[in-house]
Amino acid sequence: MRLTREVMLDRMAASDPAFNGRFIVGVHSTGIYCLPSCRARRPKPENVRFYDSIEAAREAGLRACKKCRPDDWAQGIDADRDRLAAVLATMWESPGRFRGIEDLAREAVMSPSVFFTAVRNQYQSTPGALLTSARVRQARRLLQSGGEVGAVGQEVGFESSSAYYENFGRRTGMPPAAYQRLAGRTDFAVELPDDFAPTPLFHYLGRDPNSLTERLTDEGVDLSVWAGEVPCRISLSVSGQSMRVCIDADRPVDVFAVHHQVSRLLGLEQDPRAFEEHVRGLGYGRLIEGREGMRIPLTPTPFDALVWCIVGQQVNLPFAFALRRRLSEKMAIPVGAGMFAPPTAEWLATRELEEFVPLQYSRRKAEYLVGAAQSVVEGRLDLETLSRAPRSEIEKTLLAQRGIGPWAANYLMMRALGSPDCVPVGDTGITTALGRFFDVARPGPEETLRLLEPFRPYRSYACYHLWQTLHKSD
User: Fold this and answer.
1) Burial readout 349-374 (b: 16 or more C-beta within 10 A, e: otherwise)
2) Is the pLDDT of residue 60 over 50?
3) Residue 285 domain-assigned?
4) Helices 459-469 & 445-452, crossing angle to 10 degrees?
5) Residue 78's pLDDT band (boundaries 50, 70, 90)?
6) Same domain, 23 and 155
7) pTM for this one?
8) Which residues form a coiled coil (predicted)?
9) Please, what sign has the CA dihedral across residues 300, 303, 307, 312?
10) Containing domain of residue 260, as a range?
11) What is the pLDDT of residue 473?
12) What is the mean pLDDT of the chain?
């Protein structure tokens, strides 16, 4: 997408790090060039010119800004970013080392306010939310390995038992002791948030009535998933304020893996209340009417979203569904009830391109799919680890993968990695819904960004609600 001056001025005013590398800001009144994310005093628009590269800005006689240090950024050097990333990497592995946000900020050599802003800008979250997620993640690991339930809360850094049980329960749907007892079970129940809206979830999972991996039933929905190395079919059904999960497999499975995938589908790590308050404050409450409490369902695994992005690009939805079904039929691993396991990275990485011809895949789509699978298998594209990286690094890594353009990168960040502020520009559904919602002609890329700008930093939620407006469900 070619950026207009208006879009670049807007992104400069927002100090948007997502546009670093897409253009350079030249301030001719001071003779410097900056990154779009620079937080120095805003120049007057008439004093600003935009350049495609640092070299072009230098040729115009400008020098590098000492605040945002664009030359360092271009060389991959950003001391603040790297120090912040190192601190958060330590936090994810050893959250118990940090009593709170002040400890994290001190480790990063930042004031708490600067630290908060840096995390918000680079990770689309707050330090408190990330630290709590890290504590719960580590608690799950320790409980799986047999850690004493009460001691685990202290070890991961929760300041009290009540904070431990409340946060663990909200993000997993069950108390720590119940979670630890999952091993060996063939069924379990996940407690749903009070405002949880199951109808949109079931509607999403039932979009393809002929799907071999997702199928609506009288009770709820059946899914085929991989629990570690074991393919299985799981049945989800709502019972009161709980989601009942039953596992059907021909041998023992990793129940913790099943629980993790169900938690992703339910969006248990999400809290849509801030977005809903934001939307009402804008006067756009009709966007969420009847869908209050709706989470964005993440795909069971990040790789599932990667496959869908490549399979579904530049084809209509019914044909994309057909292409996806043919992959499962080709791999041919049944899980019962006429359903088949979803394709794995290991299987796709070893396919010959000629095998996709009878499946009606274009050669280019087959190349992208096999190449992406090989990147995952070889560790060059680690989507789980990538989900904890800065937004700019996530986007740069995804765009470096053949077959992943801006639309797919934003879709993956939204549906695979849980990023709350993404816009899959060019998505037909979103542009159609935006036109209807604002009663305007179907917008182009620049107008799409302009219309969605008020919803920042929750544009992923806005996009998902816009998709839902296209099919009013009962």
Assistant:
1) bebeeeebeeeebeeebbbbbbbbbb
2) yes
3) no
4) 110
5) low
6) no
7) 0.84
8) none
9) positive
10) 184-269
11) 45
12) 93
